[in-house]
C-alpha cells in the first residue's frame, strides 16, 4: 500500500450519531408467550407505539409550501396584510364602478349642457 492509502485509514474518528438502546431480561414463561425469533407477529404489538405526530404540511407538495409561508407571514404581518387587501379591493371596486358608469355620466353632463344652451 502507498503512503496516501495509509493516511486515508488513519483519519480521526468522530461521533456521527447517537444510539439509544433498551435491553430487558424476561423469564422463560414470558419469552414463550412473546416469541421474538420465530416469525413476525402483528406489528406494533409489543411494545405498543402510538402513531407519530407528523405535520400535515408535507402531503401535497404545492400547498405545503404555501401553508408554511402563510403560517410564517401571518404571525409577522397578517393583520397588516389583511387591511391592505381589503383597502385595495374597495379601491378596485370604486374604480370599476366609475369606469362602468362613466359613459352614462358623460351622457347626462352633455344632455344638461345642451338643454341649458338651447333651453
Strand proportion, as a percent range, falls in under 5%
> C-alpha Rg, in Å?
38 Å
Largest sheet: none
Counting H and I runs of at least 4 residues, what is the number of helices?
Answer: 3
Shape: elongated
Overall number of strands: 0
**Unreliable segments of 5+ consecutive residues:** none
What order do the helices and strands follow? HHH
Helical residue percent? 55-70%
The residue-averaged pLDDT reads 78
Protein name: Ferlin C-terminal domain-containing protein
Explain this structure.
The protein is mainly alpha-helical. It has one domain (3-38, 56-118). It has helices at 3-9, 28-33, 61-118. The radius of gyration is 38 Å and the shape is elongated. It starts with a helix and ends with a helix.
